[in-house]
Records
---
Amino acid sequence: MLFNFMLGFGKFHRYAVAASVGLALSIGLGISLGVPEAIVARSQTRLAQKDFFREGIYKANRAYVLSQSARNAADWNEVAKLWIQAVAAMQNVPMRSSKRALAEKKVVEYMRNFAYAQDRAAISSNLSYPTFNSDILDEQLELYLSYIESLGVPDIMIVGSSRALQGLDPSALQTALAARGKGNLKIFNFGINGATAKVVEFQLKKLLSVEQLPRQIIFADGVRAFNSGRSDRTYNEIIRSPGYQRLASGIRPRLSSAVLEGNFARENSLENDRANSLENPSAKESSYKQSLEDGKEPLWLGAAAEPALTEAIADLWINRIDANGFKPVSEQFNPAIYYRRYPRVAGRYDRDYESFWLGGEQDAAFKAIVSFVKSRKIPLLVVGLPLTWDYLDWDRSVREQQFRQYMQRLARNLGFAWRDLSQGNLSRNDYFQDPSHINRYGAAAVARQLAADPRLTWPRAR
């Protein structure tokens, strides 16, 4: 029941699943976890007599059959649970078994299928609210609300564009701060692709209620977020969205309680369906049961799958947004390879620096952010994220210097913390996905550098 219970909490279940999987695998492997040795011995005897390979194939076939009729998040949630149960069974195939080598391959295959099922579940949103014309904003908002319901309001929130989303790892920052005696702080990355100062102002002042605001904010980004000379497509899409209109009417986003209730109701229904299916199997179930008797299993996402679907699974499994809102990207920037795939764009033609102007609406929005957080006694740290030396040609370097001077002046006059990480040892290529976007290794390095800064202050862990 614990396993099913943890997987029933709407979208946030996919981030809790690792803990429940570990529990299931530890029990299956006979790790005592404080259980009396006699009980462990009896359990291990029963486990030794059990055909885990057969059970794994059975669970995988169940997942396959259910996937053929899955239509909503609850359906795909059940598919995901079955794939994890199949993984646990295959992991428990004895090390000396002749089936162990194949079982290990099945674990990898089933985990890919599990990842796909999870993301299919996420497509059917638990957020009963119209879209903000931004998939990433819709997803991050739902995750943030689920995070609050599950763990409470974070101590620290990271905001900014895709550079922040993948450029500052909240888990690495939490670990680094804890190592320095700051306690176990909760940190969430609410980065949004294309975010600007205007978008961040919208997030903090309109989208979230006062009760949903963190105790400290890190605005991690660069020139693009503050350049009023360029068109702000993301903000313009948001204010034209159905979600914005709903928000303007005074109705704030919230998670649908009906979804959570439906998950538990469906759990009972599915248990009955499983029992009935054993007595009155459908044609599909009869087919896979026969396959099971023959020692076979149908291909779901194996070599026979459509190439486009296989590629989609790979994309979903890699670079997924994690439980803390962070997008870990593993690719490492290699100029020799990168510029064979993409043209080199000079700074004078870079739209991020288009009609460069550090005044105007973005400047006004940022000053409004500073005023707002000061009124709420929420400390603000602005971080200029690193860029590669390869990216910083003469035109970009001039604009970046102007941006640093602009931020230094505002920090001094308005009273917020500013840290420039755009130069120095964090600019190495292996810390980047591309010339201007940090990868997971760089994101961890940024977190460590901020945590090590003795001049920065952090909230006390509660």
---
Amino acid sequence: MKNYSIGGRSIVSVHVPGCSPHLWNKSQDSGIAEMEELPVPHNIKISNITCDSFKISWDMDSKSKDRITHYFIDLNKKENKNSNKFKHKDVPTKLVAKAVPLPMTVRGHWFLSPRTEYTVAVQTASKQVDGDYVVSEWSEIIEFCTADYSKVHLTQLLEKAEVIAGRMLKLSVFYRNQHKEYFDYIREHHGNAMQPSVKDNSGSHGSPISGKLEGIFFSCNTEFNTGKPPQDSPYGRYRFEIAAEKLFNPNTNLYFGDFYCMYTAYHYVILVIAPVGSPGDEFCKQRLPQLNIKDNKFLTCDEEDGVMVYHHAQDVILEVIYTDPVDLSLGTVAEITGHQLMSLSTANAKKDPSCKTCNISVGR
């Protein structure tokens, strides 16, 4: 059992492994008996959905309504048909709540994850003098999906990332590694301009940019001893390099997108650069914390003696997403002399949910 907050009161949650909501009656527990006289919830409504909470309400007949002392809520992750059938399944969550005025808030990061589909059903109950319950039939089962991280949650991630960002090093270029065929395709089919594509699902599960934001992936980290980009890359042997000022300048906005790791010591920070007023800028403005381009812990752009000077954080790996097309004529494409380290790729990488450095107290 665990305590959590629901409807402003202290509630106990009961986990009943493998128990179907339609079988949670006297045959399952000698302390619970079925009674048709209690009203059955219907017309269930879910509202005010966040990444780790929601409000629930329903209609019910007035008959015997005054006898209701508790609600039983059966909450389950919707089964993924493509999931591995041998993989351990999440234990269903049965919530026991005192009968509070509706709508009732259900909140708990330990059983609700962001951007996840759930099913829910409700039962009314009347606690007897001897401690047993008389219960109604279960309601219909409805489905809903939790939300992405809000700006509040992302700001918490941002603050954790700032702690480990480290000192700032100079940079002069952004770079993007791909296979030769990629650049050939861009020249032949896209008029020499790299096009934004939808971001993959790497990073935090609740990130509002995964699967939604369109952009072009760039790197900007440099080697400490040379001040230049590393010669190795996970993403391909051909590298497009572009002067930093052509992508990042006072005519662009900078946003914090995510902070994560992949079960290793390396930590990644996702930043988004968007030309002011562009569709990408409008998307980010509504969802992501905006950074001061001259003063932040990750990537800065400032003018010194009439020249733009750029710095990046030393102790995190920056993944920069630029939201507009980029013409290859603005930079150069050349083969790297190092290795293609496929094991370091973050494509669709899953975040380590146990890392205390890069997780916050909401669904992972």
---
Amino acid sequence: MTPSSQHYLVITALGADRPGIVNTITRHVSSCGCNIEDSRLAMLGDEFTFIMLLSGTWNAITLIESTLPLKGAEL
């Protein structure tokens, strides 16, 4: 991918921790055609939080932006 065709998106989330949450999120990111450039994950008490820097084509970033709220509601 050439630098001009690469787009970026930062996503953050906070919620109750449960087994498999990271796997679910990373699979969804990958299925949308995005890459995880950097991430930070933390446990705050019983809460799970993360911030991720994603990259991808314009179409991939648009897809993750439109589908992530629904995926988040499932979690």
---
Amino acid sequence: MKLSKIPLLGRIILAIILGVLLGQFVPPWFARIFVTFNDLFGNFLSFLIPLIIVGLVTPAIGELGKGAGRLLLITTLIAYTSTLFSGFFTYFSCQLSFPTLLEGVSFPTTGTDSSNNVLKTYFSINMPPLLDVMSALIFSFCVGIGISIIKGQTLQKAFVDFRDIITRIIASVIIPLLPIYIFGMFMSMTVSGQVYSVIMLFLKVIVAVFIIQILVLLILFSIAGIMSGRNPLKLLKTMLPAYATALGTSSSAATIPVTLDCTLKNKVTEPIASFTIPLCATIHLPGSTLKIVAFSVAFMYFSGMPVELGTFIEFIFLIGIAMIAAPGVPGGAIMAAVGIIQSVLGFNEELIAMMITAYLAIDSFGTACNVTGDGAIAIIIDKIADKEAQTNNIFL
């Protein structure tokens, strides 16, 4: 079987296993080849991060100025609120559980590239970004809002084309090279004696993420159940085929037909379901936000960085916007978030690489949470639309 035919998750797992195994036997000169590659790849990723933000966020904000008007605005606000809730619920859950859960698991660094303390690069090429991350965010907000106000179709098309370029770079360059980067990273950590702590951290946080995910879905469907006057557990049970399908596809878009069918079975009116489900497949990512926040908190504990509420308030609000702009490719959500992770939380290339690895290792479970939550949003929107219709307001 060709390596390209192996799913991304399979390649990542293979890279981790080979990195750990070979790291125990290979001579330092061989390992330094991959340390050099990782340094170049990390610099290239740092160069791309501001461009990724501009390419994804600007057209996404510009597109909010068109569509179904009031229904689009209300659905977007509810989806964004749901994403924020998922982020803050995860943060406080992690703050309560991680001090005990991660006790005894430590990483001997406070932001430096510890792998290079043992293995040095053969050479390094500096790739300074064209602008810093915060400048990219402010530029994207200003231009995106401006496009939506003046309805600048020419400028919007230019940024949509730029988004296509960025999406192709992510799908054709970044994602395919990630397994090599991960292989080199785990080989370096094995040589420096850190790999056991990292793997233990991964396993513990993954278990915590699954538990938090279940709680978030139960709360979302409880709200939907209260508003619709129906049993939330039955509503959630009806959405399970969509959850199972997303586990296999790892794509919200590919799961839309099943999600739509499950939503209709929950007695959501067809016009609302047909509008809400495709839209939420793009803008409603509570599962992705949950994973990003949980792994961010874990790695900050892991590396001795301060975990402060003020920092995470800014982080979660920005991540919510990034999730709306995330491209529909494997790993798109985490790639849209890396700039914010770097600028707000202060992660270096090594920690960002571990974030990407951990995120992609359970990518399909985040997608499954996303599409299942879409069903709850559809029920809420349907109830709001019904009340609007009863007061003779034009909603659709």
